[in-house]
């Protein structure tokens, strides 16, 4: 068998696509399922729907033209007979299937009493040895036929070196591998792999399929350990980096003290706690890498402001980035209001940086950032562009961090390279990370949670309403506006086309303007020039608009406490977390608020049951964690994690929902392994991640 590099380029390309570069990659490429070619069954004993292998003699063979052209072949063994049907076939196949030929045939048996048949079975001349193991079926790609992949995996397995990395003191206790009450010992990796690639036919297929077999347990334990090792290693590497020490300035005249004294509210206990956690990180010479998590409306902005003043008090600069301009503008307005008067006294200021800025404005902002006069810089990803040179950046705050890619975060870190240090990083998110994800993919992050809403909020009532009752909803809007309240109307998401999105929003805007005479209805969509967006948003914030029709540009972070009703059209097209974020835009003041989820019933009849069930989940709970958990169930971690990880680094075998015991073990074992067996840890990481582990460091 040739080594992979001797293969044709097309095949190599397919292998690369599957991430199969090294022998070890092939060895770890495990079957999706198996076929049993180890036995030959009598025709009469094959059940309907069973994948069966038979040996039989052809008794008749003819091409029929009705009802459609097909090759129909009768075969017979000692127990009975069976019809084979082929709707497409080559002359050579027809020849093999000639009357009198003895064949070995494999396919799904259909029918019973009225005659058995197989559609398009696989066949060849009878005889020859039967394999002694089940035949693996691997995930493959176009251009890489299954039999070739099988041979490549088998030969890689014979070449590959599999040193044991789980020395006895690191191996999980036997109890981890108990299956159906019988304790199993930990299989060694080679045995486990050999078994999974070529299981003996007597194995309980169920245990292979649900991955509960000890061989699978070994592989999943290995994989989880590799993931934890890479996360702990990233953490250790970071602890070797230097960051500016931002000591707390105990002085009533400090910016921090003056900001806190001037706030119109007292911090909640949860806010006080997270401010303290962040403060402890900032006082250290190692870069902070912390995620601030808090449900929508929990008050993350003021926590961010207090972190910023801490940096500014220590004589450094802070940058705050948000994924959209609207969101950045809201932060800017709020922070400017809080900090500018305080900063002005010291001759310092807050700068604004976004993409579509006027040249003059931008040049001035850049100069203030470079000179250090701008103590705080707020903006979109424009903040991390190359031309932006900071004087002394010590803290970077990233709002809704899951929307930023790894590369953007790397760029941010490089902003302090001139000082030979890295900035502290604070990431903020309103999307709660379910516990298992936090323990696995986010294990290299410290997490602070604001688990309490500011007092005086009234819970949002969520209603599911069919869009055939839109009129009633519009009447409700009129009533709210008459009471001096404001309303959001979120237009459906049209993923395929931004243009459609826009025309739809425009149509809704016209419809509502007509249905609500005397009510000022505003329109906000992603294609608007940013100045116009800002102007519309300002009108709404100041209460001049009763209704704001918008595409999902308001999805995150917008804060208008007087808004008490949100209508989401075609709610079934949104993800749960997204709906939760949207709903968080209302219920920010003391008045009772409501969220109406309109779902479509017209064109295709009715909304699908799963979609409805998802929407029901929204009506049942307002707990962001519960919603995130259900969202994770529905969408799986890949989508949930978004840009955080390259697809490569996702878990392939372990399932966070069922393998928490293995995850617990891996979490406990990874630091021990790095500490006491660094060479084994390196070997283990190399085996599983090869060159991919860089992604995990951002
Ligand atoms: P989010 O966590 O969603 O970003 P914000 O920071 O926008 O939430 O805060 C939501 C609203 O609550 C804002 O109007 C903010 O000023 C207000 N707020 C924040 N903290 C408190 C508090 N401790 N008491 C009262 N209101 C608060
Ligand atoms: Mg926010």
UniProtKB/TrEMBL annotation:
Residues 281-450 form the Helicase ATP-binding domain. Its EC number is 5.6.2.4. It comes from the Bacteria. Keywords: ATP-binding, DNA damage, DNA recombination, DNA repair, DNA-binding, Helicase, Hydrolase, Isomerase, Nucleotide-binding. InterPro entries: ATP-dep_DNA_helicase_RecG, DEAD/DEAH_box_helicase_dom, Helicase_ATP-bd, Helicase_C-like, NA-bd_OB-fold, P-loop_NTPase, RecG/Mfd, RecG_dom3_C. Residues 460-633 form the Helicase C-terminal domain. It is an enzyme of class 5 (isomerase). Belongs to the helicase family. RecG subfamily. Plays a critical role in recombination and DNA repair. Helps process Holliday junction intermediates to mature products by catalyzing branch migration. Has replication fork regression activity, unwinds stalled or blocked replication forks to make a HJ that can be resolved. Has a DNA unwinding activity characteristic of a DNA helicase with 3'-5' polarity. This is ATP-dependent DNA helicase RecG. The lineage of its organism: Bacteria, Pseudomonadati, Pseudomonadota, Betaproteobacteria, Burkholderiales. The gene is recG.
């Amino acid at each position: 068998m040739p080594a992979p590099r001797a293969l044709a380029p097309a095949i190599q390309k397919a292998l690369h696509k599957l991430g199969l570069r090294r022998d070890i990659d092939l060895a770890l490429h495990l079957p999706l399922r198996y076929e049993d070619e180890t036995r030959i069954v009598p025709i009469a004993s094959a059940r309907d729907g069973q994948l069966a292998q038979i040996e039989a003699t052809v008794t008749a063979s003819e091409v029929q033209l009705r009802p459609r052209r097909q090759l129909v072949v009768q075969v017979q063994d000692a127990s009975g007979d069976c019809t084979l049907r082929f709707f497409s076939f080559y002359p050579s196949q027809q020849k093999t299937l000639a009357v009198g030929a003895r064949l070995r045939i494999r396919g799904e048996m259909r029918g019973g009493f009225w005659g058995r048949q197989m559609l398009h079975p696989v066949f060849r001349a009878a005889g020859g040895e039967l394999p002694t193991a089940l035949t693996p079926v691997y995930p493959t790609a176009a251009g890489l036929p299954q039999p070739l992949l099988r041979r490549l995996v088998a030969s890689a397995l014979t070449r590959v070196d599999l040193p044991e990395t789980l020395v006895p003191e690191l191996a999980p206790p036997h109890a981890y591998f108990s299956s159906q009450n019988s304790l199993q010992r930990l299989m060694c990796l080679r045995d486990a792999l050999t078994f999974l690639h070529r299981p003996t036919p007597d194995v309980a297929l169920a245990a292979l399929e649900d991955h509960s077999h000890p061989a699978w347990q070994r592989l999943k334990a290995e994989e989880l350990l590799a993931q934890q090792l890479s996360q702990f290693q990233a953490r250790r590497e970071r602890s070797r980096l230097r960051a500016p020490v931002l000591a707390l300035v105990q002085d009533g005249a400090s910016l921090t003290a003056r900001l806190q004294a001037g706030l119109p509210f007292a911090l909640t206990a949860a806010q006080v706690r997270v401010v303290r956690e962040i403060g402890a990180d900032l006082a250290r010479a190692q870069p902070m890498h912390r995620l601030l998590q808090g449900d929508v409306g929990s008050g993350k902005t003021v926590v961010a402001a207090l972190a910023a003043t801490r940096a500014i008090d220590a004589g450094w600069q802070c940058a705050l980035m948000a994924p959209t301009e609207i969101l950045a503008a809201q932060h800017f307005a709020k922070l400017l209001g809080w900090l500018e008067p305080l900063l002005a006294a010291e001759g310092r200021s807050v700068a604004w940086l976004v993409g579509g800025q006027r040249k003059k404005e931008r040049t001035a902002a850049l100069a203030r950032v470079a000179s250090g006069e701008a103590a705080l810089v707020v903006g979109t990803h424009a903040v991390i562009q190359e031309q932006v040179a900071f004087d002394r950046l010590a803290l970077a705050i990233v709002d809704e961090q899951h929307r930023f890619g790894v590369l953007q975060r790397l760029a941010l870190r490089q902003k302090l390279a001139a000082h030979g240090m890295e900035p502290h990083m604070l990431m903020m998110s309103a999307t709660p990370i379910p516990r298992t994800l936090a323990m696995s993919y986010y294990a290299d992050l410290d997490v602070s949670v604001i688990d309490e809403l500011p007092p005086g909020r009234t819970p949002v009532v969520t209603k599911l309403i069919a869009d055939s009752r839109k009129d009633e909803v519009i009447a409700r809007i009129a009533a709210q506006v008459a009471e001096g309240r404001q309303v959001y109307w979120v237009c459906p998401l049209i993923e395929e086309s931004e243009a459609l999105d826009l025309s739809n929003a425009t149509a809704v805007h016209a419809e509502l303007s007509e249905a609500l005479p005397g009510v000022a209805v505003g329109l906000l969509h992603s294609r608007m020039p940013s100045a116009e967006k800002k102007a519309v948003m300002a009108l709404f914030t100041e209460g001049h608009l009763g209704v704001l029709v918008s595409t999902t540009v308001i999805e995150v972070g917008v804060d208008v406490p007087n808004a008490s009703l949100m209508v989401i059209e075609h709610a079934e097209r949104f993800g749960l977390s997204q709906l939760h974020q949207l709903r968080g835009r209302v219920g920010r003041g003391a008045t009772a608020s409501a969220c109406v989820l309109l779902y479509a019933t017209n064109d295709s009849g009715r909304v699908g049951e799963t979609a409805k069930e998802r929407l029901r989940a929204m009506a049942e709970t307002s707990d962001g964690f519960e919603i995130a958990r259900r969202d994770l169930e529905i969408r799986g971690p890949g989508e949930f994690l978004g840009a955080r990880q390259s697809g490569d680094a996702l878990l392939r075998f372990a399932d966070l929902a069922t393998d928490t015991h293995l995850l617990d073990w891996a979490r406990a074992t990874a630091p021990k392994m790095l500490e006491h067996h660094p060479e084994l840890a390196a070997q283990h990481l190399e085996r599983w991640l090869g060159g991919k582990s860089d992604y995990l460091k951002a």
